[in-house]
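User:
Hi there, any thoughts?
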Amino acid sequence: MPRSTTTSVLTPELRRVSSVMVLGSIMAILDTTIVAVALDTLGRDFHVPVSTVQWVTTGYLLSLAVVIPVTGWAVDRFGAKLMWMTSLTLFIAGSCLCGAAWSANSLIVFRVLQGLGGGMILPIGQSMVARAAGPQRIGRVMSVVGVPTVLGPILGPVLGGLIVSNFSWRWIFYINVPIGIFTLILSSRFLVGHEERIRNSFDGVGFALLSPGLAALVYSLSEVGITGRFTSTPVLVSFVLGLALMVGFVLHALRIRNPLLDLRLFKNRNFTISNICMFVMGATLYGSMFLLPLYYQIARGQSPWQAGLLMAPQGIGAALLMRTSGTIADRAGPRKVVPVGIVIMAVATIPFAFVTSTTNDILLAGTLFVRGIGLGLSMMPIMSAAYYDLSHADVPRASTTLNIVRQIGASVATAAFAVVLQRGIVENTHAHSASDSALLSQSVKLPPTIAGEVARAFAHTFWWTVATIVVALIPTMFLPSHGPAAVPGVATDEVENLIAPVVSAVD
């Protein structure tokens, strides 16, 4: 086969490897949102207040923040296939235990265990596929692997709402078990297990600084999302502590040879620009995913699964354009694709800045579909651009960094939008903060007058979403204006060698 064809076509073997990654990754990402619609049910079943049951979500996010920084080192040291299957096993075990939980405290502990596995799944999966694809096919492959990143937050509320409405909440966790076991079987057959391993010593000091620092930052931002205040003592203490630990890690990482997170990768211009874009895109995607379900449920009085279905057009629009955007980015460069997607997203978000409690559902669904098209054009080319000039050995740590940056962007946006929204509701309804908290937890339809004022608060908050998307346009203008070229350490012959064992396994 000619070399040009080899580097431009996604082989059946590479598609199978990508499919395995998608199966595993979508479980982990779904679990960041699927539980949100069940919190009220969990509180009633375990007879605990919202402040306690909220830790079912927060504990999962904190464990993700702790384990993600270790992923790059673990892949280098023990191999990607072993770590992938280990993380899947932890996630499946955690899911079984969560489904069998007998109290709120036990469920929180088991969610932490589940998150320790789930946090490694996405970065390991991305690094394995990026290595196997090579630079020439990175955009097209990432357009496949990126499906869970975009669709997971959208499908989570739908699936969670359907399960809670028709079955026991325990099936939110048990549903992961057969999917996870099936993914393990496919992984043992399709994935390469004899890749080169790098025996770097573990950066214990870096871990003691970075993982708790990230966890403290995520906790502080999660608390803002719950309380709606930046000035509470837990928020301030955890934020300052997290920031101090992160600064300490940066100073430490720049002085040693093999840090837990390789900050020297930021010397690469494409990698730096891509991370800036990923931060803002994470804020845009997850910030909107925070606002949209609440708007449908609070201002319009719709059920969680109805809200999830109404958000589905955005996922459909994104899925339609993902493959195309990756192909165009591979040929012409991300700068020709991403800014167009950002502009489409911004224009399609503006109608939400004028929503009322009775805005036509079809109009909103059509707007979300167009917004999804912009998202599909933007997200994956940004991710693939980060790998353009990196060597084969740099890929695991690059994947780790991208996932950390995206999660921080998502946490910052969710916290900020929560504060803006709650303050808007208090001002518009002339309610006290306590009343406001009660308002946000209602699952019944509000009186028309109050619903109208609440919708106005949402409309104001959506202007902040528009502004975030516009800000995202700036760094995208500095993305590469050309497609990827072959780089040292990722030659075409090596790519074919990586997936060769898959061929024999399939045969």
The domain at 3-202+260-506 is CATH 1.20.1250.20 (Growth Hormone; Chain: A;).
